[in-house]
Amino acid sequence: MSEIREVVIIGSGPAGYTAALYTARAQMRPLLFGSSIFVGGSLTTTTEVENFPGFPGGVDGPVLMENMRAQAEKFGAEMTDDDIVEVDLTGDIKLLTDSAGTVHRAKTVIIATGSGYRKLGLPKEDDLSGRGVSWCATCDGFFFRDRDIVVVGGDTAMEEATFLTRFAKSVTVVHRRSTLRASKVMQERAFADDKISFAFDSEIAEIKETNGMLGGVVLRDVFTGATRDLDVTGLFIAIGHDPRTELFKGQLDLDGEGYISVASPTTRTSLPGVFAAGDVVDHTYRQAITAAGTGAAAALDAERYLAARN
Length: 310
Ligand code: FAD
Fold this sequence. Notes:
The strands form five sheets. Strands 1, 2, 5, 6, 7, 8 and 19 form a seven-stranded mixed sheet that branches. This protein has a five-stranded parallel sheet with strand order 10-17-11-12-13. The chain contains six helices and 19 strands. Helix 1 (about 15-25) runs parallel beside helix 2. The protein is of the alpha/beta class. Flavin-adenine dinucleotide binds near residues 12, 38, 43, 113 and 291. It catalyses: [thioredoxin]-dithiol + NADP(+) = [thioredoxin]-disulfide + NADPH + H(+). Its cofactor is FAD. This is Thioredoxin reductase. Keywords: FAD, Flavoprotein, Oxidoreductase, Redox-active center.
């Protein structure tokens, strides 16, 4: 039988690593499972991060994540580049099974499994991430000053497009239907904006590359199949997110979109001793700093839960 841990953390993004740092410094000897294929979380798929405080010159996403990991390890956090494939969180002692079938036992669990941006599924989409293709206007809008941009999606795309007009020369919103469901106020604002134009009944058919950067897109009319080139150097994909909560279905309360429900402003989930932080909870802010912030909160919540139990 494995020892009973004070805390096991699932996820190696800013939320998981920050929870590891805090619980390690609180002498809780955390064990973190950080995934077998995606160690370091979403920021490892980007280059320059300019909005994480403490780095006036910006910081490379993978470097930021390696630093977070090293800082937690310095205080004794144990890291395992493996997946948790099954959980039983209902008992007093939580059971977590890794990919080798080993069952780990813990008094508390911090879930920080993040969420994935939905993709168009087109060739070159991943290769050009951070090279003209983005999923986050808040993160990357600043890099697109005075450029022609296309935004694909529905209501969120409208919000992203309006935000991007602060930087861009022009923004084209590509939408599969002939109307938008976005609020009337939002639509009127977008329609009145000289920088925004719309390509309704359209989808992105192809992503083009020029010298390793986005070199434009091809639009396709969903009814006629007719295609046309759009000369842009920025593509923002705003077609939704999928929280990584498959493991927890049936055990934890999830909201209508599948995110873990917590007793805000705490990180307590519907089960005692189980806490959740970062993008697996948050569909509003989705930033590295907010994920790190709630990771710290989850560590403090877990620490207090154990203190009250002992
Ligand atoms: P994540 O970073 O998604 O990490 C979750 C981790 O948990 C992943 O590694 C995942 O594989 C792992 N995991 C999931 N399930 C399991 C399991 N069962 N077992 C083990 N491990 C598991 N934010 C900014 O603030 N500034 C930016 O400039 C910025 N740029 C971005 C650029 C890109 C391309 C992307 C995709 C995101 C960007 N973001 C940016 C958003 C930011 O990356 C996220 O908000 C943040 O990483 C969320 O942190 P998290 O810890 O909640 O989850």
